[in-house]
Amino acid sequence: MADAPGWQGLLDDGEQILWQGRPSSRIDWLDGDWRSALMGLVMVAFALFWMFQAAKSGTGMWVFGMLFLVIGLRTALSENVLPAYIRSRSWYTLTNRRAIVATDMPVRGRRLASFPITAATPVVLEPGDPGSIFFGPLALSERKGEGFLLIPEADKVMRIIRKIQSGEETKDAP
């Protein structure tokens, strides 16, 4: 991220990058909301049926099915595909002072979320391969909040964060 065009000048004086990475962009079919996906697929099937039958009648009413088609597709894909797409457009950076989550989305553009890492910052590790690290007050809630999602070396990054929080030297970061 620091070397990518348009992201220069984001670090404060004395701030050093300790780790950078990208999340896994795989689609997580097991962790999504299957009820929403199923409801969306039913809506898509109904919309396609409506549009086909209305087109056969020649009345032009098939256009109304487009609304249900779009809503159904969004409902079906938003819990599994959309998060994977957002992760594919995300970059993570850990410095000796903060965690940075950068995204570059079409239409929305570039966004930067920054989370100070202090001894008082709530940080939660969700182990796994890949694992996730969540920051801030929402990290302690069920909602989880923001963080480094689905990174392959989450345990190593968590150790670096703990060193930052304890005030230890962090020059030996991977």
TrEMBL record:
Membrane-spanning residues: 34-52, 59-77
Organism of derivation: Paracoccus aminophilus JCM 7686
Keyword list, A-Z: Membrane, Transmembrane, Transmembrane helix
Designated name of the protein: Aspartate carbamoyltransferase catalytic subunit
